[in-house]
Design goal:
131 residues; 5 helices
Length: 131
């Protein structure tokens, strides 16, 4: 898997990679560490002092929190229909992802419009009571 990730992201200027705890393995860490500035790869089990210090550095913790935000967004996309892709092939997968992202964005736009409408109605009600 590390070799695949390296090939996929070789042309991008990536400063950090973040992986789930289940991906941790000594060999994975060694292969990935030299390719990015910061590797966010939590160790399973108990850490030694150096690993503890690394995992509790400010940059590591900040990037780990970003990883949580990405996981949250992935979960949201799954709820918008991206949990399974019934179509075969990369082209169809890209189309399916695009539709899920569009559904997510439409929902966010709708939430914003509803919030604006409620704020306007609240303002209108205040003007009626004042007059």
């Amino acid at each position: 898997m590390p070799d695949l990730a390296q090939r996929i992201f070789a042309s991008y200027a990536v400063n950090s990679w973040s992986f789930d705890k289940g991906f941790w393995h000594k060999d994975n860490k060694e292969k990935l560490q030299g390719n990015v500035e910061t590797l966010v790869l939590l160790k399973k089990g108990k850490c030694n002092k150096a690993e503890y210090k690394e995992e509790h550095s400010q940059r590591f913790l900040k990037l780990r929190n970003k990883h949580s935000a990405v996981e949250s967004n992935v979960n949201e996309l799954e709820h918008r229909g991206l949990d399974r892709c019934p179509d075969k092939g990369y082209h169809n997968f890209k189309r399916y992802v695009s539709l899920s992202v569009s559904a997510y964005n439409l929902r966010k736009i709708g939430e914003e419009l509803i919030a604006e409408m409620r704020a306007t109605e609240k303002t209108d009600r205040l003007h009626i009571h004042v007059a």
